[in-house]
Write a structure and sequence with these properties.
alpha/beta, 6-stranded mixed beta sheet, 17 strands, Nitrilase/N-carbamoyl-D-aminoacid amidohydrolase, 292 residues
Length: 292
């Protein structure tokens, strides 16, 4: 069995907030001659600039999630028959606050989900924080989890997405700073410790410094860009590799989701005011003990 998912990752410079026509043309150009049903991903705040490389003021750029922008993006995904993650956008919530939000659209032209960034880059990013994790089921393919840039520095976020069923974590990024080197390491670490695919898509210059990459559940870099240029990173991943690695172990050895067994003593987690309970460590666990 195999569950292939074509990826089209756009390491692109940002665009003006209202340049939906230009964005549509860019998506069409990158998707041309590619596999149907691909997952197309753009960087953080791709449609969020006031000038080349300059992020727009959040309150000025924000609009409700179901506004004009949403209709254009829905139609675009439907017309091209793709799963579309257009990066993230400034969303004006019903509570009047502004969020950094990643929507996901289906090949049927439906918005399936929207994830609000849980960990804005403090003190530089002044938008409100999201308060829920988000995974999305791609019908007939598998499950992806959503994270935005600085979220990748917090292992709890990737862990929870994997626990919720994510087989691929899509991390949209806008990093123009020297810590991109650490983010590359963290992408591999999050893939290894959670045995999932990770796709980290950074902006091209002048909005970011590139170095986008795809990492497999063993932590191996499958594909990457080598500079900050505008480029399209493509790959076809098999989501069944997640279950294979979890069954046989990373490097044929380590099975982190089978570490705790029913009957083991719970481990208190004073850091969170909670605990690891072996009975719920693996949400997908069956009642049978796995063979070793």
């Amino acid at each position: 069995m195999a569950r292939p998912l074509p990826l089209i990752l756009a390491q692109a410079p940002g665009r003006p907030v209202d340049d939906l026509a230009g964005f549509t043309s860019d998506v069409e150009r990158r998707v041309k001659l590619r596999a149907p049903g691909a997952l197309v991903v753009y960087p953080e705040l791709h449609l969020g600039e006031s000038a080349p490389g300059v992020t727009a003021a959040p309150k000025t750029a924000a609009e409700p999630l179901d506004g004009k922008r949403d209709a254009v993006l829905s139609d675009l995904a439907g017309d091209l028959g793709i799963w579309l993650v257009p990066g993230s956008v400034y969303e004006r919530g019903a509570d009047g606050r502004v969020y950094n939000t990643t929507p996901v659209y289906s090949p049927k032209g439906e918005r399936l989900a929207a994830y609000r960034k849980i960990c804005p880059w403090r003190p530089y990013e002044t938008i409100a924080s999201g308060n829920r994790f988000e995974v999305v089921t791609l019908d007939g393919v598998g499950c992806i989890g959503l994270s935005i840039c600085y979220d990748t520095w917090f292992p709890e976020i990737s862990r929870h997405l994997a626990w919720m069923g994510a087989e691929l974590i899509v991390n949209v990024v806008r990093t123009p700073t020297s810590d991109r080197a650490q983010e590359v390491v963290l992408s591999r670490a999050n893939a290894i410790t959670n045995q999932v695919f990770v796709a980290s898509v950074n902006s091209a210059a002048p909005s970011g410094i590139g170095r986008s990459l795809v990492v497999d559940p063993q932590g191996t870099v499958r594909a990457e860009t080598v500079d900050a240029g505008d480029s399209t990173l493509t790959d076809v991943i098999d989501l069944d590799e997640v279950s294979n690695v979890r069954h046989y172990g990373t490097a044929g050895l380590n099975r982190v989701w089978e570490q705790f067994r029913p009957g083991d003593a719970p481990l208190e987690l004073p850091l969170y005011g909670g605990r690891i309970d072996p009975a719920t460590w693996n949400a997908a666990r069956t009642t049978e003990e796995p063979a070793r």
